[in-house]
Amino acid sequence: MTAAVLFENVSRHFGAVKAVDAVDLEIAAGEFFAMLGPSGSGKTTCLRLMAGFEQPTGGHIEIFGETAEGVPPYRRSVNTVFQDYALFPHLSILDNVAYGLMVKGVGKDERRKAAEDALAMVKLPGYGQRRPGQLSGGQRQRVALARALVNKPKVLLLDEPLGALDLKLREQMQEELKSLQKSLGITFVFVTHDQGEALSMADRIAVFNDGKIQQLGTPEDIYKRPQTRFVADFVGSSNVLSSAICARLGVPAKAASLRPEAIAIGTSWAEQLSLPGTVTARSFLGATNRVSVDCNGEKIIVASPAAMPVPEIGADVQLAFSRNDLHLMEEA
Amino acid sequence: MRSDRSTTAPLGLKIAAIGGLAFLHIPILLIFLYAFTTEEKSYQFPPPGLTLQWFAVTWNRPDVWAALTLSVKVATIATAIALVLGTLCAAAVSQTRFFGRETISLLVILPIALPGIITGIALRSAFSMADIPFSFWTIVLGHATFCIVVVYNNAVARFRRVSGSLIEASMDLGADGFQTFRHIILPNIGTALLAGGMLAFALSFDEVIVTTFTGGQQSTLPIWMLEELIRPRQRPVTNVVAMVVMLVTFLPILAAYYLTRDGDQIAGAGK
Amino acid sequence: MSALATPAAIMPNRPGLTGRISDFLWKHPHVLLVILLGPPVLWLGIIYLGSLFALLLQSFFSIDDFSGLISYEFTLSTYKQLLSDANFDIIVRTITMAAVVTIFSALIAFPIAYYAARYAKGKWKAVFYLGIMLPLWSSYLVKIYAWKLILAKEGILTWAFTKLHLLWLLDGWLSLPIIGGNSLSVSYTGTFLVFVYVWMPFMILPIQAALERVPGNLIEASSDLGGTPQQTFRHVLFPLALPGIVAGSIFTFSLTLGDYIIPQIVGSSRLFIGQAVYAQQGTAGNIPLAAAFTVVPIVIMGLYLWMAKRMGAFDAL
C-alpha cells in the first residue's frame, strides 16, 4: 500500500538554520499521526512542507505516491486546519466552509448543501449565516475543521489544533477528532507541543528536536521506552540514570531511562533492583506525591501514589523498581 | 476608591485639554463666520452684518471655477497613480520577506518627511534640466509622488492584519493566486485603499508648496488662495472659497475615518 | 483499491492563462516581487531621488558673477557663501523658531493627548480623535488665512483685548524688541502663533499613542507607593511619554524648518530658510545657493532622526 505521506531525506534550510534536516518519514494511509516537539524543533515546517507552503531544499516528498515538490498548495488534495483558524473575516460561516468548493467551480446550490452538511458534521448546524467574529474559539475551530473536510482531502493537516482551547474543551475535542478520523478514514497529521495530546490521540508519534526525528513509534513505545535523553525528558519527564548508576545496578549501559511512577519507596522485593538515596524535596500533586531523591549526587524523581506515606525531607530511603522498567538507551 | 479616581480627570487637565481643542477649532469656526460678513475692505470683527450675497458672487466667478476644476482633476489623477503605486509597494513589503524593506519604507516616506520645498525645488530643477515644460502633468507628477505614502501607510496597516495565514488558507483550499487576490485580499484591503485614496485626494487637493514649483501658468485652488493671501484683492470671495475648501477637505477625512473605524471593529471582534 | 475511486492527491495543472501565470509566479516568488516593486521603485527612484540628487549636486556648482549663468565646475564656494553672516543668520533664526515652536507644541499637545489617551471613553474618544484629525487634515492655506483674520489690527484678537480692557498688554507686548512689531501679523509673535497652530496637531497623535501604551495601573502603582501627582508625572508618566514627544517633534521641527509660506504671509521681512531657498531659485536665479540652502534642513533632520531613533521614538510613530 502506498504511503499517505513519504519524506525521503527531506531538508528545509533557511540560510544557516536547519529547520528540517534530512528527515525520513512514512505516514500510512488512514493513520492518525502526531508530530511532537518543542517550538523550533521542525515539526511545523514539516507540516508546511506537506501542505506546500514551504519547499524542501533537499530530498523528496510524495503524497499518495505522487511527487509533491514544486506543486503549489492549491493543487494538492491536502487541507489544513490552521493554528489561528485563519477564517476569512469578511465571509459568512457558510461561505467560509464553501470557499474551497467555490474556487473549484462547484455550483452554488451544490456547494451550499455540502457546506451545511459539513457544518452539521462538526455539530454547528444552522450557524452558516454568522460571521467568524461572532463565534467562540471552540466554534471557530469546528468551522475551520468543516472548511477543510468539505473538500474531502486525502490528508488533513492540523497545526496545534487544540492549543488555544481551555482544558475542558480540549479534552472534548480530542475525543471528537479521534472519532471523526475513525469514521472518515482520512489520514490526519497533527502538530503539537503537548505530549498528553499526542499520546492520547495519535496512532503513531514522531518526536522532533533540532530539525530531526528523535524517535518514531506508538504512544506506548515513546512513553515507556524513550531512546534518547531528549525524548525521556520531553515525553513525561523520565529519569535518566547515568552509566555509573547503571553499573551499580549491575546493568552495563551508557544510560537508562526509568519512569517516576515505576519506582516505589521502601524495601525491595527479592527480584527487584534497589538504590539508596536521601529525600531532598516533596510536593503534593493530587493523585501522586512528587518526591525528589538524591542518589550519589544524581536526582531521581519518584511519583508515589497519594495513598502511600511520604518520607520526610532528609530521610534515607530505598528506591525499588523492576528490571523490566529500566530501558537502556543508546546515547548518554 | 482608587479605580474611581482614575475615571475623572483633574480639573486642571480638563481645562488644558479643552482649551487646547478650542485653540484648534476656533480659527476654523471663524472661517465659517467670515464667509457671511458684509464687510468688504477689512477683516473687521465682529462683522458689521451678515449676508449670503458673496456665495452668488463666488458662484459666478470663472477663475474660481477654473482653479477648482484643475484641483479636482489633478487630485483625481494623482490619487489614482498613488493608489496603484502605494498598493503595489505595500503588497511587496508585507507579503514577502526581502532584504531591502526598510529602505523601501524610507523611500516612500521621504517625499513627505523632507520639507515640501525640497521636493518642489528638486522636481523643478529636474524638469528644467530635462527640458520638460511645466504643465498639468508636471503638477500631477509631483502630487502623485508625495501621495504614495498616504496610500502606502493605510494599505500596509491593513495588509498586516490580513495575516499571512489567510492567504495560505485560501491557497490551501484550492484558490490560485488570482482567485486569492479577488476573493480574499481585495475584499479585506478594499476599505483601507478607499480611505487611503480619500486622504491622498485631500492631501493633493490642498497642496500648495510643491505646486508652486511644478505648476506653470495654471493655478490650482490653493495657488489661487495663496495669491489672494499675499495680495488680497477680493476678500469676500476668498472668505467663501476658504469655507468651501474647508468643507471639501472635511468630507473625505470623515469618510476615511468611518471606513477604517468599521474595519478596526471587525478586526477587534475577530481577535 | 479505494484510493483509485477518490480524486488524485495531486491535481493536474490549472488550464488557461491565469492558471499558468499563477503557477509560474508561485514557483518564482522573486518575479512577483519584481513585478510588485518595479513601478513604485522606478517612480520614486527615478523621479524623486533622481531629482533630489541632481539638486544636491548643483550645490557643488557656483553661479558666474558676470554672466549670471551656472558654471558646471566642482567648487565649495557656494557653501562658503551659505555660511556668510547674512545667510548664517537665516539658518540660526529658522532653527530657533523651529525649536520654540516644537516646545510650545509639546506643551499644548500633551494635555490633549493625555486626556484623550486616559480619560476619553467611547463616544468621547471618537470626538477627541476627530477633533484632532479634522484640524490636522484641513486645508493648510485656509488655516493660515484664518490667522490672518485673527491677527489683523481690526480682527478678533484686538477686539477681545479691547473688551477685556487689556489693550495695554497687547501694545506692551508689541513694543518689545525682536518679538514685537507694528502689529501681530507682521511680528515674530504672529509667525510663531501660526506655526504652532498649523503644526501642533502633528504632535498630539504620537504622544497619545505613547501614553496609551502606559498601563493605567502603573500610575496607580506610583500613587500607591506614595508618589504625589507631580512626582508620578515626573518619574513615571513623562519618561514613558518621551518617545512620543520626540516622535511628534520630528514633524513639528521638520515642518517648521522647511516652511516658507507662513513667514511670508504672517511675519516680518526677515527671511527663514524656506524663503531664502524660494528667493534664491526664483528671483535671484541662483540654483546652486538654493540647493546649498536645502542641504541645511536635510542635514539637521538627518541628525535629528538619528538621535530620535536612538531614543526609541520610532516605536511611537
Describe the structure.
The complex is a heterotrimer of chains A (332), B (271) and C (317). By secondary structure, chain A is an alpha+beta fold. Chain A folds into 2 domains: 5-226, Rossmann fold (3-Layer(aba) Sandwich), CATH 3.40.50.300; 237-329, OB fold (Dihydrolipoamide Acetyltransferase, E2P), CATH 2.40.50.100. Chain A contains 9 helices and 18 strands. Chain A has a 6-stranded mixed sheet with strand order 6-7-8-3-9-10, with helices on both faces. In chain A, helix 2 crosses helix 3 (108-121), helix 2 runs parallel beside helix 4 (137-149) and helix 3 (108-121) crosses helix 4 (137-149). The relative contact order of chain A is 0.12. With 271 residues, chain B is an all-alpha fold. The relative contact order of chain B is 0.13. Chain B has helices spanning 2-7, 11-34, 53-59, 62-95, 101-113, 116-129, 136-161, 164-172, 177-206, 209-214, 221-230, 235-270. Chain C has one domain (84-316): MetI-like (MetI-like fold), CATH 1.10.3720. Chain C is 71% helix and 1% strand. In chain C, helix 2 packs across helix 15 and helix 4 crosses helix 10. The N and C termini of chain C lie far apart (61 Å). Chains in contact: A-B, A-C, B-C. The interface between B and C is large, with 81 and 95 residues.
Provide the fold topology.
The complex is a heterotrimer of chains A (332), B (271) and C (317).
Chain A: E1 5-14, E2 17-27, E3 32-36, H1 43-51, E4 58-63, E5 66-67, E6 78-81, H2 93-103, H3 108-121, H4 137-149, E7 155-159, H5 167-184, E8 187-192, H6 195-201, E9 204-209, E10 212-217, H7 219-224, H8 229-234, E11 239-242, H9 243-248, E12 255-258, E13 264-265, E14 273-284, E15 288-295, E16 298-305, E17 316-321, E18 327-329
Parallel strand pairs in A: 3-8, 3-9, 6-7, 7-8
Antiparallel strand pairs in A: 1-2, 1-4, 4-5, 9-10, 11-12, 12-18, 13-17, 14-15, 14-17, 15-16
Helix pairs in contact in A: 2-3, 2-4, 3-4
Chain B: H1 2-7, H2 11-34, H3 53-59, H4 62-95, H5 101-113, H6 116-129, H7 136-161, H8 164-172, H9 177-206, H10 209-214, H11 221-230, H12 235-270
Helix pairs in contact in B: 2-12, 3-12, 4-7, 4-9, 4-11, 5-7, 7-9, 8-9, 9-12
Chain C: H1 16-27, H2 29-58, E1 62-63, E2 70-71, H3 77-82, H4 85-118, H5 123-137, H6 140-151, H7 156-163, H8 167-174, H9 188-199, H10 201-212, H11 216-224, H12 229-258, H13 261-265, H14 273-281, H15 287-310
Helix pairs in contact in C: 2-15, 4-9, 4-10, 4-12, 5-10, 6-9, 10-12, 11-12, 12-15, 14-15
